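Task 17 of the worksheet. Students: predict the tertiary structure of the chain below and write it out as structure tokens. Keep your answer in the requested format; marks are given for formatting as well as content.
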Amino acid sequence: MSELVTERLDWEVVLDRCWWHRIRPLTYRHLRELPDGRIPDHVLSELSGHATELAIRGQRLAAVLEEVARYFQQAGVRVLVFKGPTLCRDAYGDLALRECGDLDLIIDRTDFEQVSELLTTEGFTSWWERRDKNRQVFACEFERADGTLDVHWDLAPSWFNYRVDFDRLWKSGTPLEAACPLVRKLSIEDSLAVLSIHGAKHWWERIRWICDVAELINRGEIIDWNRVDEAARQANCRRTVALGTWLAGKLLSAKVPVAVMERLDGTPGISGLGRQVSEWLRYAERGAERRRVGERFRFRMGLCEQPRDRLAQILRYLISRP
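Model answer:
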């Protein structure tokens, strides 16, 4: 970090990029450790203020999560928690080190009506009745003054062909707290798969998503890499998880075992996809919609596991063309 900080840096550009990539708190953690005078006071002040706001927001969201966990437990509804304050604690060890604006939950699709009624009773409102019937919907947002819930029954539109086995994910998880055994957080192996799906769905256009994978790997908890591969296989996302792990290891020096990195380097096409993401992060304009359709198509095809997955992407590509 010290070598990167020079007098020629345009700090407004730095702050803007940190905002876009959602890494202001991580940037502040490193910049504040540099000797006095290296960083302009206004830069440290802005980043410090943002970190304080994040900590307060994280505590508020954590309190909302504890509250809704009790609702689900009392109603007998199984729920999985991912990202949000849970990821802040498990991967970063601090609510102030990761930007999060809502709470993400996974439910069994058959429980949606009960979940919707329960949350509505507790003061949340949703856009479900106003949704576009022609859109591929895999989640529903519930809002309340003190927090927003994104309730998922799938992790991506159907043309991605990822598979979510809620029963398996829930059984592999661990209770969020002893008093609410029905509300669980994902196992670390399943978390790596889910985070990789999320990043790939959004073209890995924000460094924060790669940081999530890297920090989870680096936390020191023992990861069963055979279970990671099995979780990815069952979710039909082995190449997606391979890319997420490759990015964390190559770009952010995550502590991926040497044998795993060697296997990833030897997996056809993964290093090429990684270089494509690196180029997007470095040069591409904001917004996936600004990338060429053909470029996006090749990226999606590169992540496909089976011929039927490639067929789904081809059909999606043809339908989306003007």
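Marker's comment: DSSP finds 14 helices and seven strands in the chain. The CA atoms of residues 129 and 140 lie 10 Å apart.
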